[in-house]
Fold this protein.
Amino acid sequence: MAGTQHLADPGVSWSGTVAYGPGPLHAPASVPELQALVAGAFRIRALGTRHSFSTIAASDGPLVTLQAMPADIEVDTVARTVRVAAGVRYGEVARAVEAQGLALANMGSLPHISEGGAGSTGTHGSGDDLAVLAASVRAVEMVGAEGDLVRLTREDDPEVFGGVVLSLGVLGVFTHLTLDLEPAADWAQVVHRDVPAAEVTAEGLDALLGGATSVSLFHRWDGRIDQVWSKQRLDPDREVAAQLPPVIWHGARRSPDPVHPLPELSADSCTDQSGTPGPFVERLPHFRMEFTPSAGEEIQSEYLVARGDVAAALAAVSELGKRIRPLLYASELRTVAADELWLSPAHGRTSACVHFTWRSRPAEVKALLPAIEERLALFAPRPHWGKVFTTDPTEVRSQYPRLENFRTLRDRLDPDRVFANAFVDRLLGD
Ligand SMILES: Cc1cc2nc3c(=O)[nH]c(=O)nc-3n(C[C@H](O)[C@H](O)[C@H](O)COP(=O)(O)OP(=O)(O)OC[C@H]3O[C@@H](n4cnc5c(N)ncnc54)[C@H](O)[C@@H]3O)c2cc1C
């Protein structure tokens, strides 16, 4: 293992609020080195780009990062697929496929996250027809518990594939993923400001969230919506303006200037909001790849409920508005298409995502979350695996109808729990 580097202290998450453990952190430089590392490990946990807010990646044992491995990105323009190394960032893959006239099916708000890490927690963007990022994975190559190299595909392994793709890092260390691609199209983004409370009804929310290919609503639990970000995949045969929401829309006005979701921050780091057509990678994420997000002074929480429950869920949590606002930077509402991945928060139901970006006050946030979760309990919420929540594990498990299948698969692939940590032991049960 000549090329493998070892860091004694794995450090902390992007937000600084999760310490990954005592380490060491290994950085193999090739797949065989990774295999040798896993084969010799009693416990080992993969680390992506460290953007999760929950302790999902932390471990009291060794960790491994793929950052020193080759950053493979192989686009197959005929099959319309891309095979990527799991440590590569989404934004890099997006650029590479765009250069070949192709596009990713979806992206999260931040392009800096890794393929392996984003897929493993159910990372999503927004759009009634856009599923979690992991849903476009068609093949997984991973190092299994004994250091063996395993390749599973959607076509050849349909009985287990839905459990493997989004698996919280407990089935193996992904080395490469192959994703479905789409033909490239231009996208345009506009932002509207100030939807009055009178428009924030079940019908109003439904129309706003369904008003473009991908919509995000930013608000502060006071009955209004502060910003509506609409991202539209454009039909080249139609006039652009006719495909975008009108200038005055549900009482909101289109913003003449770019804005940041946190209005006090500069919009320089945000993607174009002028309605000008451009590639998906410069419109679909909220933030631009070339801006390194600063060391994040924030914490995030998010719960997925059924799309049809969004207004009722919003009303229920709004009762806590006075307690929420002092801790909040902004909240965001998005939608996600249903999928069939066993541990996906959007499993089997098109969902609305109720999101909070909190100030970095971890103890106060954790103290408030049970009250929010109590208000949401009526709506069978599924917490985002990569964000902070306090929901009882039994409750979490009860939201996943394929959980037993997943546990059986895990028993088969990792009977000795080489890839376990405290987070998954608690949430999945052992
Ligand atoms: C500013 C910001 C914006 C965000 N925006 C969004 C958003 O728009 N939508 C959304 O859904 N989430 C969002 N998130 C959350 C984020 O996308 C997820 O937490 C995501 O999992 C982070 O990916 P990562 O590469 O940092 O993974 P990490 O946090 O490093 O790891 C996450 C999990 O993946 C596992 N893992 C990592 N690599 C591998 C591998 N090679 N093989 C097996 N398992 C692996 C780890 O063990 C761990 O369990 C945001 C986070 C931040 C900080």
Summary: The first strand starts at residue 5 and ends at 7. The longest helix spans residues 362-376. The pocket of flavin-adenine dinucleotide is lined by residues 14, 45-52, 56-57, 66, 86, 108-110, 113-114, 116-118, 120-121, 123-125, 168-169, 173-174, 293, 296, 384, 386 (CB under 6 Å).
